[in-house]
């Protein structure tokens, strides 16, 4: 146990450094803050594009189709705009500076480098949606961090216009943002001119071709997902929240892939990315980290009071993907006996999902970011229909079978301990 505690301390130290890195933390927290936007956009996309002919005929005949398509265009289709503000805001607040000004400057920077044009009338100026959604997400991240760094550096070094005494703090803070704002504006104009002189034409095209496309191609591979799942659950075994640590790094890639699938779903065609943000909650977290729903079902039939009680307490939270009562209550953390099924079960589930999707037996997930609290089977149906729900049901059975041999022995030992404790209590009572 001493060696395990030492390894746990080392892993926690590394994971803490990753989570506390201001750049990674700003990206992670900034994207997490967008969950309401992503969820609302995904739900309305489902309402608008649900593939039931009578339902679609009803929407079109009543004219509701025009309105049900609007929420997605101002949520997921504009995700880069929300992201650039949110990430810069989080970066500045981590440095104890005013986040709102940083967010506004980041948004301005994003719009400065985004291609603009005129409508057919030759007068009306317009932004195309092309770079405002998932395709512009990496530019949003880069600019948010760059602007956040410039903003916080200028304010920390006090390189700004200082106001006379007696000026209200809100006015002083507004003027303090002028200097970094001017620096940022000039820098964005220079970048725009530089990229305009290249074959790419603009910053968005360059970042998408050189950075975003290769990263999403790499992050969207089956082996990258399986490596992430392995690392996540290895960290969980040592008591570290592996999902948060790994998602901090790969989250932007998975979100971009999921949004591209969602865009395809809105257009009535199947997405092209097997891997994306919904893949994890639908295929990996069946009952929570370790895909433990099968284990918890086994607990309901335990012979020992300890595990039967824990199973009754954990079954409802586990149905919505919350299984901390089992991870820390059983515990599964640093429990060598359950290490193999804890890591193996989600790998089996995700590996089979990837294989069956590749073969066309399972559909590509729609990209709908379902909120925490949507039960298993329901979240599968929302992202791919009855076939995904049926697969989840099969994997619950597989989880039961993988965990059961390990659990059976633990249950027998717990029952023996309880019987010994009862016998000892009875003997003590008899002597009195």
TrEMBL record:
This is Permease IIC component. The chain crosses the membrane at residues 21-50, 70-92, 99-119, 131-154, 175-197, 217-237, 244-262, 282-301, 340-365, 386-406. Its main location: membrane. Keywords: Cell membrane, Membrane, Sugar transport, Transmembrane, Transmembrane helix, Transport. It is a multi-pass membrane protein. The phosphoenolpyruvate-dependent sugar phosphotransferase system (PTS), a major carbohydrate active -transport system, catalyzes the phosphorylation of incoming sugar substrates concomitant with their translocation across the cell membrane. It comes from the Bacteria. PROSITE patterns: PTS_EIIC_TYPE_3. It is found in: Cell membrane. Pfam families: PTS_EIIC (PF02378). Residues 7-406 form the PTS EIIC type-3 domain.
């Amino acid at each position: 146990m001493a060696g395990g505690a030492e390894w746990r301390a080392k892993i926690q130290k590394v994971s803490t450094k990753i989570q506390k890195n201001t750049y990674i933390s700003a990206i992670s927290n900034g994207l997490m803050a967008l969950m309401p936007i992503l969820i609302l956009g995904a739900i309305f996309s489902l309402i608008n594009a649900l593939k039931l002919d009578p339902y679609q005929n009803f929407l079109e005949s009543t004219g509701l189709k025009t309105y049900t398509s609007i929420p997605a265009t101002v949520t997921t289709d504009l995700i880069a705009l929300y992201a650039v503000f949110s990430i810069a805001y989080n970066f500045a607040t981590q440095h104890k500076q005013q986040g709102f000004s940083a967010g506004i400057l980041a948004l301005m920077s994003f719009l400065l480098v985004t291609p603009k044009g005129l409508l057919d009338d030759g007068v009306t100026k317009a932004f195309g949606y092309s770079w405002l959604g998932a395709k512009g997400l990496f530019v949003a991240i880069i600019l948010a961090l760059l602007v956040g760094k410039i903003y916080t550096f200028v304010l920390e070094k006090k390189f700004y216009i200082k106001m006379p005494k007696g000026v209200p703090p809100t006015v002083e803070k507004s003027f303090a943002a002028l200097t970094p704002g001017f620096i940022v504006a000039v820098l964005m104009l220079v970048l725009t001119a530089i990229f305009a002189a290249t074959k790419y034409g603009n910053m968005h095209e360059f970042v998408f071709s050189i950075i975003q496309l290769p990263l999403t191609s790499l992050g969207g591979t089956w082996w990258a997902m399986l490596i992430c799942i392995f690392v996540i659950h290895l960290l969980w075994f040592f008591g570290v929240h592996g999902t948060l640590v790994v998602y901090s790094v790969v989250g932007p890639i998975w979100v971009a892939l999921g949004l591209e699938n969602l865009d395809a779903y809105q257009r009535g065609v199947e997405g092209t990315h097997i891997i994306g943000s919904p893949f994890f909650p639908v295929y990996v977290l069946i009952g929570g980290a370790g895909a433990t729903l099968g284990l918890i079902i086994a607990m309901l039939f335990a012979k020992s009071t300890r595990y039967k009680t824990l199973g009754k307490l954990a079954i409802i939270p586990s149905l919505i993907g919350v299984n901390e009562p089992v991870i820390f209550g059983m515990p599964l953390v640093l429990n060598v006996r359950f290490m193999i099924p804890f890591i193996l079960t989600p790998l089996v589930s995700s590996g089979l999902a990837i294989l069956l999707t590749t073969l066309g037996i399972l559909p590509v997930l729609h990209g709908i970011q379902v909120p925490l609290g949507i039960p298993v089977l329901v979240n599968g149906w929302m992202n791919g229909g009855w076939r995904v729900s049926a697969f989840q049901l099969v994997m619950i059975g597989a989880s039961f079978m993988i965990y059961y041999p390990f659990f059976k022995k633990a249950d027998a030992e717990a029952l023996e301990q309880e019987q010994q404790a009862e016998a000892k209590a009875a003997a003590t009572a008899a002597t009195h």
